[in-house]
Amino acid sequence: MFDSLTTQARDFLNQPIPQFINGEWRESDETIDVIDPSSGSKVATVAKGNQNDINLAIEAADEAFKTWSKLTPQKRADYLQKLADKMEENTKTLAQLEAIDVGKAFVNAEGFDIPFGIECARYYADFATKAVYDKQLDLTDIEARVHKTPYGACGFIFPWNFPFDLFMWNVMPALAAGNTAVIKPAELTPLTTLYVCKLAKEVGIPDGVINVVVGTGKSVGIPLIEHPKTRRLSFTGSPQVGKQIASMCGQRPIPCKLELGGKGAAVVFDDADIDNAVTQLAGAITLNSGQVCCTATRWLIHENIYDIFVEKVTETLRNTVIGPGMDPNTEMGPVVSQTQQDTILGYLDKGLKEGATQILEGGKISIKDHDGGYYVAPYLLEGLPQNICFREEIFGPTAFLVKFKDEAEAIELVNCLEYGLANSVFSSDLTRCNRVAEQMVAGNSWINAHNVFAYGLPYSGINLSGVGGGVNSPETFYDYLRDLTIARPLA
Ligand code: NAD
């Protein structure tokens, strides 16, 4: 299947991939094997960084900041647009690397992940040229303004589910605002992040503006947070690790943006377009094999339509084509690792033991000629909202169904957890949709759809799902600038 790889992807994978620090490729004594989840086989070797590499990367980012931050927004925008052009030329290669690394369906990577990430680079490049950097204050006897200025070298720590998009969503606004970056991708999925460094070098992004060190949380993540020249941190990942990172940042102290996990609910009323709800929700748990922070995994279905909804959604899920990410027919690939497969299957066991019923039988499956891959067929459970599978983030192709009678009960079920990332409501009554949407305690409420993303539409979580400037919006851009007041007494 790898016969179809572009020459660029093949060449990139065929030699050990070093780290990218100060515009140079830097080897390391230790390495990490990159595994293709579709087959369980090793596809690449990547240098494993350490404290010393982080020191070099932060020093480089700090030095580069002195000139990058002084460029005009237009000049920085020109660099980011050139990078976007180069990434666009390399869409197929990037999509193949993402599919091999994460296991996601190539068609999704090529049709969504890569183009949507590139659009982000263009959005923030353009935004930076129009942003307001100074605000005059109307004070008595003092001439004053608030001046927006970048922080310096920023640290970024990412998970493995959307490596390319998370890189774009977080790093592009920071760079456009004049900061420089040291990035720690997830040790499982470093490929597209490192490939973008190659493209950044080709288009002449100045050395030290983008640095990538691959490693574990302990070997690379902690030194990145603790380095005195790391001026702020953006973390995307689990709430458990997010809390530890927030307290480390608190000790420094530096600002820390957290984008954490979720346990989204979808409320389907009895006047909803059932076929649309079925398409949206089956799509939500099969997209990226359900490894999506904002996906809907608690399906609250009105009792009047419960049976027909279950009949249709189980039929749709049964027909999902599961296979290796690189197969063009694949609609849903494997999950990212053996550990993740074990976690998802462990939840199925625990949920059943706590009294849930499996209404769509799924779980571990093998795919012909890809026996070593980490495949999980979608499973649906129904039962009581006390069940562990209703309450905890599983991060796999699964949802837990609960029947409800009325609006008040549905809203109570949506809001009964500490997570607060994204929920949706389905009904043909838009007044009701808006009323319910406003009462959902989360960063995002979607109407008659799940997973609604656009540049200019703020996306962030609250409570256990995160805090800070979110992604994809003007607020994210301004979050990467600090306020400096400049004042002169007139009397
Ligand atoms: P994780 O928290 O285990 O790891 C995330 C990153 O943190 C990895 O790079 C990891 O190496 C690093 N890390 C781990 N321990 C660390 C430590 N002590 N110090 C510094 N760095 C450390 O998460 P994961 O399993 O990779 O990803 C899945 C989680 O990410 C899910 O909870 C998912 O919901 C969440 N997520 C959230 C969003 C969002 O936008 N809210 C987007 C994608 C994923």
Q: Please report the number of helical segments.
A: 16
Low-confidence stretches: none
Strand content: 15-25%
Most strands sheet: 7 strands, mixed
Mean pLDDT across residues: 97
Distance between the termini: 76 Å
Q: What strand line-up does the widest sheet have?
A: 14-17-18-13-12-19-20
Structural class: alpha/beta
What small molecules does this complex bind? Answer: nicotinamide-adenine-dinucleotide
Indicate the overall shape: globular
Rg from Cα: 23 Å
**Strand segment tally:** 22
Helical content class: 40-55%
Layout of helices and strands:
Layout: H1 7-13, E1 19-21, E2 24-26, E3 30-36, E4 41-48, H2 51-68, H3 73-89, H4 91-102, H5 106-130, E5 134-138, E6 142-150, E7 153-157, H6 163-176, E8 180-184, H7 191-202, E9 210-212, H8 217-226, E10 232-236, H9 239-251, E11 256-259, E12 264-268, H10 274-286, E13 296-302, H11 306-318, H12 338-353, E14 357-360, E15 363-365, E16 375-377, E17 379-382, H13 388-391, E18 398-404, H14 407-414, E19 422-426, H15 430-439, E20 444-447, E21 466-467, H16 474-479, E22 481-489
Bound molecules: nicotinamide-adenine-dinucleotide.
Nicotinamide-adenine-dinucleotide (NAD) binds at residues 157-161, 184, 186-187, 216-217, 221-222, 236-238, 241, 244-245, 259-262, 293, 393, 395, 421, 461, 466.
